[in-house]
Amino acid sequence: MSAIINNIEIIKAKSTKINDVDFDDLKFGSVFSDHMLVCNYENGKWQAPKVTPYEPITLDPSAKIFHYGQSIFEGMKAYKDENENVWLFRPLDNFKRLNISAKRLAIPELPENYFMEGLKTLLEVDSDWIPKNEGSSLYIRPFIFASGNGFHASPADAYKFIICTAPSGAYFSGKVKVLIEEKYSRSANGGVGFAKAGGNYAGQFYPTQLAIEKGYQQVIWTDDNTHEYIEEAGAMNIFVRINDTLITGPTSDRILDGITRKSIIQLAEAENIPVEVRKISVKEVVEAAKNGSLKEMFGAGTAAVISPISGFGFKDEDFDIPELEETYASFLKKRITDIQTNKTEDPFGWRYEVK
Amino acid sequence: MSAIINNIEIIKAKSTKINDVDFDDLKFGSVFSDHMLVCNYENGKWQAPKVTPYEPITLDPSAKIFHYGQSIFEGMKAYKDENENVWLFRPLDNFKRLNISAKRLAIPELPENYFMEGLKTLLEVDSDWIPKNEGSSLYIRPFIFASGNGFHASPADAYKFIICTAPSGAYFSGKVKVLIEEKYSRSANGGVGFAKAGGNYAGQFYPTQLAIEKGYQQVIWTDDNTHEYIEEAGAMNIFVRINDTLITGPTSDRILDGITRKSIIQLAEAENIPVEVRKISVKEVVEAAKNGSLKEMFGAGTAAVISPISGFGFKDEDFDIPELEETYASFLKKRITDIQTNKTEDPFGWRYEVK
Lengths: 355, 355
Fold this sequence. Notes:
The structure is a homodimer. By secondary structure, chain A is α+β, with helices and mostly antiparallel strands.
């Protein structure tokens, strides 16, 4: 079956997998919807995107993705409200950041309409896959990788832009304990840390495994030169609350400009929560934990939304963060998810209806 | 057709592509031999390797290689001497480095016999593809990537180890002009710069494109913190000759431990060329260029062997390196390629016959 929606050709899957999915017990990003969006870059330009069945990708063994790591991605979520209307959260910010990543990785930038019309068409075709359950959503993964061939270490001449979707539950279950890293690093000054580049993630896995063996779930990265300042947690930006002030580090060429991060800053300011965007030293956090002024610590990102941190390790010492009854984390998480899921007004214009 | 050599199953290609190849006009890594070695990691272990026809790879769109950059590789060369004997150069060093890279990228380490027996079997099957022409060789590309599925940012549960080969000519044609980088960086302290990880290469493409636009072919990376010290050139380690002393920077967790690099150090020492392995400041190189004591600069790596540098740019200034009649670069290149191609004695035990 073939059709055209929003000028985009649609090749429908022969059958649906949706009846095999237990929407009451969704993991994160492990079950995939029936369709995907595919758009190829060849002969010097992005060709028209298509919706196709979710199906395997075939590549030459010399395709540069296997050798030189030219890949970038985004993470987004679609929500369905009680009237079956479908909502995205600041999708143009994801599109813009995808192109910022593309430029740094020498990947050709994508036209806005291919991204937005392609995404909307895909969501229309797979609308049944968007969960309505509280805490669940359709996780959306746009990505671009080098599909061109050859062993010369230079940018590829062909790329694939694909959007896949996966109905998903929570990224972390329960509270998270983190290790503040003092040896390994995530990114260099003048490097690609600000980009959502595949290579930024692979480099974190081994140090994270070491942290998991010590009883932590995530690593908090510090600057590679002194390890004295907190950067981000890899899959999340980091916020700390000292007394009543919410603090997060400034973005830089080492740190991802998180969309959840900047939304939280804006939300907190609108709610008259004192917010500071400035460098956070590990010393300051350790001292605050010792003298009791460290009230909260949480991660923020699309996948995890807001993920409270229950304690941290640093130099073989463990610090618990006492549980408050009313936290910024839960207050801000409710504010942001209420906006995302159309349960409240959206004074910021962040919500984007798919229709 | 199926056969067994060295305990490895061989599935032969139905026909050969070799008659389409002009062995007198070989580019670098763009024509591929008839077969490849394939070895899958699944169910917690590396399965038996097989030689198969060189053929496309099929992956799920959620395969982690597309999203999280878990990939590593090696570069090697096979040479055929006038008696049709086939030689490798220090292949066990490539094997060991592959596993060093694997560990840092949270990829399961590969058994030595799968690598060595697999490689030897592949070379036996595709022996006709090894060029005999001066300056040409069979470029060998062993690589491992994450083939397991899912959007969770964690190590994959399945991997593919593949060896492809490509009859190849020179990597660079002619002399190379380089730009000493003062803004962008290749790697972080505590990062993955010492590993042959795909992501290390993608991050270099954009700054290299900027350098190419300014008339250079390659970037010389400097440390990400001060940009005061020379690191490596991405596809090559860097040597400078000041007066009669050959100098190269020490390896670190930011710099690849190049096999050509360490062979050159040993060769130079054996030939009574004064060699120093120590930090090289950009200032020192600029001053030496100005006062005439900078006699040579060259890159060293498997693909390029030894690649003379004719000049460098730094902070909008250009420095030419005058052409000497007798250079360390050409002397050492002849010494190393004579050993590689079995034209001379090998006092170091580097050469490895494939039989």
